[in-house]
Design a protein that fits this description.
The chain has three domains: 99 residues, Tumour Suppressor Smad4 (Sandwich), CATH 2.60.200.20; 51 residues, no CATH class; 134 residues, no CATH class. Helix content is 17%, strand content 33%. It contains four helices and 20 strands. The strands form five sheets. Strands 2-1-10-9-7 form a five-stranded antiparallel β-sheet, with no helix packed on it. The longest helix is centred in the last third of the chain and has 15 residues. The radius of gyration is 21 Å and the shape is elongated.
């Protein structure tokens, strides 16, 4: 995942980059720099067209020094040198920002109170919880088991893609699943989005429940029930039940990278009597599973 090194007043810290990261003096920024020379909202670093770019915000252009190829709308590239570091962005005398890892953004979470990074299991819990709220196209806010606020950053949908994928919020969306190749093809009219991998097996578990449940508006599964179906479909029984949440997070990431939009609408979540259940939102008549035993 992308990372930056921030130096302010002789203190050096490193931070992980989300799909879009705001730096500034305000406590609501993703990376807070308290030096008085830094504007309240200083600059934004974003993953765009398969590269990291940056731009100053508001009137901070006059106080910001930085290199990079000029793009549109004030954006500049963060170009990495042969030594693996970018040229520094500078504000004032002793505040600098430097890209030290130019890998694309990945899914990660953080405790908003302590700043501690979440484990994969904790991230899965947040994404599984029906009470969690999408606050943007790449951020989900929820509560952990200790009732503390946590934030999960998801890879952002590319802003400048030439082709838009399937809109998963559209009721006309259909899904074709193949158990042998672990491939899912999501279709909406003449548009297709294809993903593959182990996370598709989890999707198949929810799809199987959706098409085989004889109760109207059925298909709801607890995590344990989804895990049992996943194992039945070939998942490793030695894996923890939390893997269902992890794989759903990976599925969301892969769909977004493939250009799908409104990915959060693929699953419905609910909480009844303290029990969380989920189901595939696609109509049973629009789900087809190939090679299902």
């Amino acid at each position: 995942m992308g990372r930056v090194r921030v130096e302010s007043g002789g203190v050096v810290t490193e931070s992980v980059l989300a799909g879009s990261t705001l730096l500034g003096r305000d406590e609501r920024c993703d990376i807070v720099i308290s030096a008085r020379c830094v504007p309240i909202y200083w600059l934004e670093i974003r993953w765009r067209n398969a590269t990291w770019v940056w731009r100053p915000l508001g009137n901070s252009a006059s106080t910001t020094v930085g290199a990079g190829r000029q793009l549109d709308d004030g954006w500049r590239t963060l170009e990495v040198t042969r030594e693996g570091n970018s040229r520094r962005l500078r504000c004032g005398v002793d505040v600098t920002v430097q890209l030290i890892d130019n890998a694309p953004p990945t899914q990660f979470g953080r405790n908003l109170a302590s700043g501690r990074f979440l484990t994969d299991e904790e991230v899965g819990d947040v994404l599984q919880d029906a009470a969690s709220i999408c606050v943007s196209r790449h951020q989900v806010v929820g509560l952990n088991k200790q009732n503390e606020a946590v934030l999960v950053n998801l890879p952002e949908i590319p802003q400048d893609t030439d082709s838009v994928g399937v809109d998963l919020a559209d009721a006309a969306c259909s899904i074709d699943l193949d158990t042998r190749t672990l491939t899912a093809v999501l279709t909406l009219r003449n548009v297709e989005t294809t993903v593959s991998g182990e996370s598709v097996r989890v999707l198949m578990a929810y799809a199987k429940a959706r098409i085989q449940d004889t109760v109207p508006e059925g298909g709801w599964l607890t995590r344990a029930e989804a895990y049992a179906l996943w194992v039945e479909l070939g998942g490793h029984s030695t894996s923890p039940t939390e893997r269902i949440g992890w794989e759903k997070g990976k599925l969301r990431e892969r769909l977004e990278r493939a250009g799908a939009i409104n990915v959060g609408a693929l699953f419905e979540n609910r909480r009844q009597h303290g029990i969380i259940t989920s189901r595939l939102s696609v109509s049973p008549c629009r789900i087809h599973i190939n090679n299902l035993a």
